[in-house]
Design brief:
This protein is α+β, with helices and mostly antiparallel strands. The protein is about 50% helix and about 20% strand. The protein folds into three domains: about 1-170, no CATH class; about 175-290, Beta-Lactamase (2-Layer Sandwich), CATH 3.30.450.20; about 290-460, Alpha-Beta Plaits (2-Layer Sandwich), CATH 3.30.70. InterPro entries: Biofilm_reg_signaling, GGDEF_dom, Nucleotide_cyclase, PAC, PAS, PAS-assoc_C, PAS-like_dom_sf, PAS_4.
Amino acid sequence: MTDDVERYRSPERVPAVPCHGGGRISLTESERGALVSRWWQTLATSCRLSIPERQARELLGHVVDELASGADADLFDVAMGARVVDAWMVAGLAHPVVPTAAEQVQCRLAEHCRPTVAARRVAGLLAAAGRGCRAQRHRLHDPGPHAVDSAERQASRVVEERFRIVFNNAAMAIAIADTAGTLLDANPGLASMIGVPIDTLRGTSIYRFAHPDYHDDIRTLIFGTVVAARAGTAKLEQRFIRADGSSGWASFAITYVEGSAGQADYLLAVGADVTEQRRLQEELHRQARHDVLTGLPNRRHLLERIEALTATSADRDRVGVCFVDLDGFKQINDRYGHAIGDQLLVAVATRLRDSLPVGKGMIARIGGDEFVVLVAPPADELRVTAIADRLLSALAAPIVIGEYELRMSASIGAVTTVAEAPAAALLEAADRALYHAKTRGKGQWVLRVLDVSSRPNWRRASV
C-alpha cells in the first residue's frame, strides 16, 4: 500500500488559490492540514478503512494538492480525475462519502473566487472526476490478459454510485445536457433553485427557464463557442425564471465533456443562485452613485450621465447644465444647527427635483449646498432658461422645518453647448456663470451660451 501511495504522490508544493480580486491566496500548511483533517474525520466516522490512518492522511493530502492544482488552472487536467479516482481505488476508499467530501474540499478551495469562477472550479472537478470514473470503469471491464476480479468490478460500481451521491448532494446546482441543449439529468440543487420537481427538468430545453433576454447569450457562449469547439468551459451569469413566475440571477459554468467507451459527449453545468449577491451589488452600485442625505444622484453619477450623453448624441445636439448654489445657507446652518440644515437640504432637494418636467432633466447634489441639473438634448437657450426659472420658483415659498419657517433662494449658473463638450468643461463653464450670478445678487440665473465657432454670449435674468 505504501508503494501505491508513493506512486500517486503529487509534486511537492503548496499551491496558490485564485481569489476574488484576481490575486492569489496561498494555501498554507495549516490550511492544508485542516482540509485533510476534516476529510479524514468524515471518513473515520462514516466507513471502515482498509489502510492505516497515517497512510490515509498522506493520500488525502496528495489529493488536496491535486485539487488545489486543478483550482489553480483555467482548465482542469483531464488526467486529474483519473488520478484521483485511481488513488481512491488503490486505497480502498470506496465509501460514498469520499467524493462528497472531495466536492466540499473543492468548494473550500474556490470559496475566495467569484461565484462564476467557483462554479467553474467545481464543474471542472466533477467533469474531470467523471472522466476518471469512466476510464476506471472501462479499464476494469476491458477484457484482456490483465483481467480483473469481481471485487474490483464491484469497486468500480461503487465508484459510479459515489459520483451519483456527489451529484445529488452537492451544494451547487448541477445539470447534464446533451450537446443539443436537452437536459438529461439535474440534481436537487437545480430543482430547488427553480422551484420544480427534478422529473420535470429531464427532457426539457436549457432555454425553458432562462430569461428571454439571455437566449442569445446562451446560443453564442454555449453552442457557438463551447459546443462548436467541442471543448472548453463557458461562464454565464444570467436571469432565470422560477416556477412561480418570479425571476432571479444564477451564475453557471458549462463544460464540454467528451464521451468515452461509446458514450456521447455532453454538457456539464454547475452553478449557484446569486440573486442576493446581485441585489447587494446593485445596492452598492446605487449607494456609490447617490447622495446619502438627499437620495439624489451624486457627482460621480452626474459625470457618468454626461459622458453617456456625449457618446450617444448627434453632432448638432445641445446639452444644458444649471449649477444651483443656495444663497445664505451657511448662515442658516450656523444659526439653527446642522440638524436643521440637513433637513433644509432634504426639503430643497425635493422641491428642486419635483420642479423638473418628468424625464426632461436629472438633478444631482455635488456638494454641501450645491446642486446641478443636467438638461438632455434638445437643450436650447429657451429650454434651459425655462428650467432655471422653474428651479428658482420652486424655492419661492417658505420652507417649514419644525418650529422654524425658513426662506431660501438660490443663484444659478446655466450653460448650453454642443453635446460633445467634456463633462469637466461643461461644469466649469456653468461654475463661471454661477460666479457672475452671485455677483449680481440673490435669486438670479445667468446663462452662458457656448458654441464652437463663436465667443461666449451672456444673458442675465432674475426672479
